[in-house]
Amino acid sequence: MNKQAVRSWIMYDWANSAYATTMIAAVMPIYYEKVAASTLPGNMPQNYWGFTQTIAMLFVALLSPVLGAMSDHSGLKVRFLAGFTILGAISASAMGLVGEGGWQLASILVVLGTIGFSVGNTFYDALLTDLVPLEKRDYVSSQGYAMGYIGGGVLLALNLLMINNPSLFGFPGETEATRAVFVTVGIWWILFSIPLFRHVKDRPRGANMKLSAIVGTSFSNMGRTFRGIRRYPQLLKYMLSYWFFNDGINTIIIMATIYGSGIGIGTSDLILALLITQFVGFPSTLLFGKFAVRSGAKRALYTSLSVYVVIVILGYFMTSAVHFYILATLVGLVQGGSQALARSLYANLVPPSRSAEFFGFLSLSSKFSSVAGPFVFSVTGTITGSSRLAIISLLAFFLIGMLLLARVDFTRGRIEALAEEPR
Description:
The radius of gyration is 21 Å and the shape is globular. The chain is built from 17 helices and no strands. The longest helix is centred in the first third of the chain and has 34 residues, at 3-36. The two termini are 21 Å apart. Helix content is 82%, strand content 0%.
């Protein structure tokens, strides 16, 4: 294992998490509503933001598996990752050009930035199998998520300082400071990605093939993935489990702020809770990686999902900002660990020579399945008129996911993944 390459791989999570925290979770949604789409009537800004995210995820779902298969066949995962990193970083920085009423440009840039971030992560995740041996993947994957938490949290703290104290940084007002925040995201992303692009090397396999031939072969490989997934029954069972519990996790991430605001928790408390989640997540993710080494990744993942069950139940009874802080801390304890272990467990079940293709397949399927969580939340809230009953409905996703996870034999799944590998 090339330790320098692995450290550089881990640092990329520090780099691109700036987009996840500032652009997806914290600053950009507020700017879109209050500035870019401020000329739209009523609740149209929120609706247009939702449509923007839907379009972006649709592109990601369609592009990830095909491009993953292309990178597997060509061996150019790092080059693909570099291209989408540049796309995402430029799109984030260009958001600084968006002024009042510029919601069309903002939507286009959000779509492009999200494609850069999410499709790029398909190649980033797939590099794990190239760089790290089987017995160390759980811990290294956890280190990546941990660095992402601290990196995203550090920049978000700086960004919030810029927005709340614009004169301290030489800006005439909050709007100008916010535009500068978007520029910092792109610079941060590019700057801390440089180690990966310097020290992690591609392993070209189709250098003499024309692009059209590679694309054709990639589509053929995708068809093979859809038709042949049944040859890996343990992988298939794990994917079913993953669709449920991952949808529960993502729905909590997406709906937590709206839910907290809906029951009367102030904006400053919600933002502070997000920072708590980021910084608690750093050491907790590392600890989960060590826990997985000692007790097994499957047991560690079960533990994290059990905590999510507790979080959902406590969320039903939440009434104050203090309660929200407690839940944010609990989320920070398990969010990174659960995602890191889910990634490494999946990596162990896929054929190594087709890792990017299978990660693209997971990206495609999970993007489509992720519609279910918010849909169930919204429908439950609409029918019952209670956001508390809506949050408790998410228990089903975790409980079903855990039941399916119990049926997965990871040892047998690893044998299945290696059985058809070229000798």
